[in-house]
Structure prediction request, 327 residues.
Amino acid sequence: MTYERALVTGGAGFIGSHLCDELLDRGKQVTVVDNLSTGRRKNIAHLEGHPNFRFVQANVLDKEQIRPDLEKADVIYHLAAAVGVGYIHEHQVGSLETNVLGTSNLLELASHMGNKVVLASSSEVYGKSTAVPFYESSDALLGPTSIPRWSYACAKALDEFLALGYHKERGLPVVILRLFNTVGPRQSGRYGMVLPRFVRQAVTGEPITVYGDGLQKRSFTYVTDVVEAMAAIAEVPSANGEVFNVGSDSETSILELADLVRRVTCSGSELVHVPFAQVYGGEFEEPARRFPAIGKIQEYIDYHPTTPLASMVEMVAESIRMEEGRE
Ligand code: UDP
Prediction:
């Protein structure tokens, strides 16, 4: 099954804009719907004027605004979401609205129009479970509702429930992707997102801020590997109604990452530990490890995210140096 007319919600965001690049490379027509709340026009500036590309400023919370563009698409990649631990902490209500109601709107419209939907979910749905590696069928373990970060996990889990319900009850062709820590150029460090923060700190000579003891581990995946997987899995009909981890099978502690960033950027920045309470205030919980099993998606597509972490750091450093005018 091939789809030719793609709509990318959140297409002016970090992952969304790379997905647009990938889809255009594949010869697709691409329309971006983004309200530019956290997305940035400059992420897609290089695509303006491309004959197969269109940008529409609209909000997924407004069904009537997005309906005409959904009607024209045959596949919708739904990435519009409030993301970033820091952002969720500051904007809990708005984030829940966008992440639950926006997705609900989109799924409802798509179920009437017959679009295929690729839903971007998150590894955050596994919560603070320590039973790594996480399989798609693994249990989730969320903390109390007094801790804002779990509202994001809960919203993304609700999105998955909704999508699976639409698939089962109304035949919506939908595939759900749980993205693990995705990194690359254009990612903003404003609302958390460790790699762009560390790299910016390293290239500007500021202290590198390791939260907590830095022994928490993550598995980082390069954005190009992620968007290739998104575009490929969309065209596999047997993936409909399925949930897939999209991540990498190598793990790094945040302290190791800080060291690597310092080495790759030849930075003299000192390393400082910042207590979580100082960053987020009050109660906070942190997943100790977040490590995916990726065998399931490999049964459906050719998925081998092999970009080494040092290369990811180099590419992020190059783009940040250009932004900072240091090249
Ligand atoms: N982190 C850090 N320093 C920062 C930003 C983040 O040590 O300046 C840590 C954060 O506590 C987490 C990891 O880096 O353990 C990844 O954070 P990010 O926000 O990128 O993603 P998360 O995995 O928390 O969703």
User: Anything to note?
Assistant: Residues 85, 181, 192-194, 197, 209-211, 216, 218, 254, 286, 290 surround uridine-5'-diphosphate (CB under 6 Å). The longest strand covers residues 116-122.
